[in-house]
Amino acid sequence: MAATTDLIDSHCHLDAPEFEPDRDAVVRLARIAGVNTIVVPAIAVSNFAATRTMAGRYPGCVCAFGLHPIYIDTHLPQHLQALRKELQQGGAVAVGEIGLDGFVPGLDMARQEWLFAEQLKIAAEFDLPVLLHIRRAQDPILKHLRRIRVRGGIAHAFNGSRQQADEFIRLGFKLGFGGAMTFDRALRIRQLARDLPLQAMVLETDAPDIAPSWIYQQRNTPAEVANIAAVLAELRQMPLAEVAAATSANVRQLLRLPPPSKLE
Questions:
Q1: What is the DSSP letter of 17?
Q2: Cβ atoms within 10 Å, residue 4
Q3: What angle do CA 74, 98, 34 make, to 5 degrees?
Q4: Residue 43 predicted with pLDDT over 80
């Protein structure tokens, strides 16, 4: 797809080892596809530096820092202080990727909830939005968000009910739609994509994961936002340019991003 629109990938792990062989080309192809901004969230203290490097190396890339729930066994209490120090350096647009995971077997949910709550407190302290990982944990996450108020955020890869979606929106959150929406069998996600207010939606890839239907089980890349936007436009029966403009404006407003600049 030619670059005729301003698109944002609101969730892309550009620092992942899957991109090591050709990262420059991946970013260049994203630019060609019209993806002018890429949000890169960290997952652990061990990749804070790599995440920040992405923002320094590629114009249009911005970073977030957090402790991902899937790696709960590797996070230590002192890593919360490391997170604070990282945020004190400036440059972060959000705290993330943080949240709860009730899907992966063996993850200590009580420990996850403690760590999530502590990171919400840090986000509130720095007046930053949060990028949420939510798998089979919609209601517990909403419970914590009602108790510890933050400056909104993005419910990444949203897959909850309409009622849960409305509650996230009420709390100031945008909902992330990506590769999962492109599968015909994803009936609930596609219905939400049709029906939710456009001002509550953002686009994402979660690259290199959650590949869309046309590259199923292959590496995902930020350039795919262009085709994901086209799917959303088709589902909503709206012009692609309108969908692109609205979803990008949503991210820029939420993360306090400047006007678009071309990736180089």
A1: G
A2: 12
A3: 120
A4: yes
For the chain, how many residues are written?
A: 264
Please spell the DSSP secondary structure of 159-226, one letter per residue: ---HHHHHHHHHTTEEEEE-GGGGSTT-HHHHHHHHHS-GGGEEE---BTSS--GGGTTS---GGGHH
The model carries a pTM of: 0.96
Taking phi over 0 as left and psi of -120 to 50 as alpha, with beta for the rest, 202 belongs to beta
Distance of CA 137 to the CA centre of its chain: 17
Q: How far apart are CA 81 and CA 65, in angstroms?
A: 12
Question: What is the token pair recorded at 214?
Answer: 């046309």
In this predicted model, what pLDDT tens digit does every residue of 128-165 receive, in sequence order? 999 999 999 999 999 999 999 999 999 999 999 999 99
| CB within 8 Å of 87: residues ≥ 6 apart | 65, 95, 122, 126, 128
Token representation of residue 206: 């979660």
pLDDT in tens, 70-104: 999 999 999 999 999 999 999 999 999 999 999 99
Which phi and psi (to 5°) does residue 206 adopt? Answer: 60, 25
Over the range 8-41, which residues count as b (16 or more CB within 10 Å of their CB) and which as e? Answer: bbbbbbbbbebbeeebeebbebbbebbbbbbbbb
Radius of gyration of the chain (CA): 17
- 8 Å CB contact between 80 and 66: no
Strand, helix or coil at 102?
coil
- pLDDT tens string 194-251: 999 999 999 999 999 999 999 999 999 999 999 999 999 999 999 999 999 999 999 9
